[in-house]
Amino acid sequence: MSPIKGTLSHIQNNNQYTFSSSIKDSSNSAKDIQPNLTVYQDEKRDKYELAAYGYGKNNVKLLYVRRNDELHHEIREYEVDTHLRLVSQKDYMEGDNHDIIATDSQKNTVYLMAKKHGIQSPEEFALLLCSHFLYTYKHVAEVSINVEEYPWTRHYVDKVPHNHAFVMSPIATRYCQVSQLRNESPQIRGGLKGLRLLKTTQSSFTDFIQDEYRTLPDMNDRIFSTIVMATWDFSTATGVDFDNVWYTVKDCIMENFAGPPETGIYSPSVQNTLYLTEKSILDKVKQISSVEMQMPNKHYFDLDFSKFSKLVQAENKEVYLPVDKPSGIIYARLSRKSFSARL
C-alpha cells in the first residue's frame, strides 16, 4: 500500500478499447453490413483481462459532533474514500448495472453509519464501513476505505479548555487505510504525514564517500529539518487503542528527533535517526508488525558573507537560506522478524 492516500484498486485509463472503425458508410453496399458486436467482444475477452478494477466515492466530508451535554462537545472531521470491488465483472464487460452499489449510495452509507454508530477513531470507522459493505452486499469481494482526519484541537482560555470552541492546528495529518477481502481479516494501516520538524544543532553528516563526484563538505554541526511521513501496519485489530497508538508514534518521532529539552539528542545522520525512531515504535506498540518512514532533507544552507568583509567580520551562524522543496529523500521500512525466519 502506498504511504499516501489512494485506492487499492486503481484503474488505468489507457487500458480501454473500442469497437473497430474499419466498417464505414463509404459505399451504399456498406450500409447493409451489420457487425457482430457480440463476437467481437468475445474475441477481446480472450485477449485481455481486467487486472485491477473497482469503483467508489472519494472525498466524502464528514463532521461528527459528540454532545456530552448541552455545552460540552467533542468533534472529529473526516474525509473518507470508499472503494468496492465486486465478484462479477459484468458491469464492465456487458454494461449490466444490476450489481452496482451507486457511489451516491456509498456516500450516504458513510453518513448513516456515523449517525447510527458514532465515531471513535479513523481506523474503527474504516473497519465499521468494511464490515457493513461485506455483510450487506454478498457480491462485494473487497472493500477499501481511506480516512483522513482534519487536525482540530480544543481551544484554551487561560489554560482552561473551552467546552465547544476548537482551533485548526495542522501539526501533522492523521490518516488510515483499511482493506478487507471477504472471509479474510482486515488489513489496517495507520499513517501520519506533514509533520515538519527543525532543530538548529545536535546534527552532523560526515565521513561519507570522498571521490571525484563529491562537492559537499563534512558538516559537523548543521540545521536538521525534515517533513516526516510515517505509516504502520497492524498485526491485529483486537484490543487496539488506535488513538493512543497514533500519539505514541508521534511521540516516538519527537523523542528521537528532538531529545531532552535541555540537551537535545545527537543525530549522526537522518538514516540513523529514522532507524532509531522505527525501532522505538516497534518496541512500544506490540500490535504494529512493521513501520515505514520517509524523512526528506529540508535544507537550510549557510550563506557566505566573505565578500562583505568590511561589513561582517564574524563567522555566520545566524542567517540561512531556506530551500522550498526537499529533494534528498531518506526512507526505510522496519519489520519484526518472524519466528520461522529465525529457524
Automatic annotation (TrEMBL):
Q: Which GO terms describe its molecular function?
A: urate oxidase activity
Residues annotated as catalytic? 57, 103, 299
Where along the chain is urate bound?
103-104, 205, 222, 270-271, 297
Pathway(s) of this molecule: Purine metabolism; urate degradation; (S)-allantoin from urate: step 1/3
Q: Which GO biological-process labels does this protein carry?
A: purine nucleobase catabolic process; urate catabolic process
Any idea which UniProt keywords this protein has? Answer: Oxidoreductase, Peroxisome, Purine metabolism
Q: Which residues bind 5-hydroxyisourate?
A: 103-104, 205, 222, 270-271, 297
Q: Where in the cell is it found?
A: Peroxisome
Which EC number applies? 1.7.3.3
Tell me the SUPFAM superfamilies matching this sequence.
Tetrahydrobiopterin biosynthesis enzymes-like (SSF55620)
Identify which top EC class this enzyme belongs to. oxidoreductase
One GO CC term on file = peroxisome
Positions bound to O2: 103, 297
Record's catalysed reaction(s): urate + O2 + H2O = 5-hydroxyisourate + H2O2
Q: Does the keyword Oxidoreductase apply?
A: yes
- In its keyword annotation, does this UniProt entry include Oxidoreductase? yes
* Functional note: Catalyzes the oxidation of uric acid to 5-hydroxyisourate, which is further processed to form (S)-allantoin.
Family note: Belongs to the uricase family.
Protein name as catalogued = Uricase
Identify the species of origin: Camponotus floridanus
